[in-house]
Amino acid sequence: MGQQKTELNNIQNHTETKINCSIKRTLFILCFIFINCKDSPKSNNTINHKNPKIELQLIKNWRNQIEDCSCYFSQNKKEFAHNKFIYLDNYGDVAFIKVNGQLEKLRLNKYDTLSSFKQILKEWSNTKFNVKLQLHQIDNLDETWQYKGVLTVKTNKGETITQKIYGECGC
Fold this sequence. Notes:
The chain has 171 residues and is an alpha+beta fold. The chain has two helices and nine strands.
């Protein structure tokens, strides 16, 4: 009976070893597959920017750039209350952003209103940047309309930054 237990233990150990080897082999193959799987090669036209360096900055002395009716936006309501703007437009065909220390003048490419004027899409550009402004009206007081939305800035090199914004348009 002792010999049968020994043989049974040997069989169990051998089976466990085979199972462990099978598991290890399967894990090795799966790891090899996952490591070697990658996206298709990128074309030579694609520029890979690991750390885009787009910094939206406050526009100072903005009254020199915009007069009368305008739209002006900040990163949030608190900054808006302190006139800390990162985007301005003349309620017409000219807008401004400040990127990496440079004030950038933009020209209007597209303007759409949706849902009974409660949503606005504006697209702007110059030789360096494409800018998209997606707005949703949250209130209006007298001759101003308050909005929340998203400002997306894309360089001609493909770098992109997206910023939530708060502000208003009016006269």
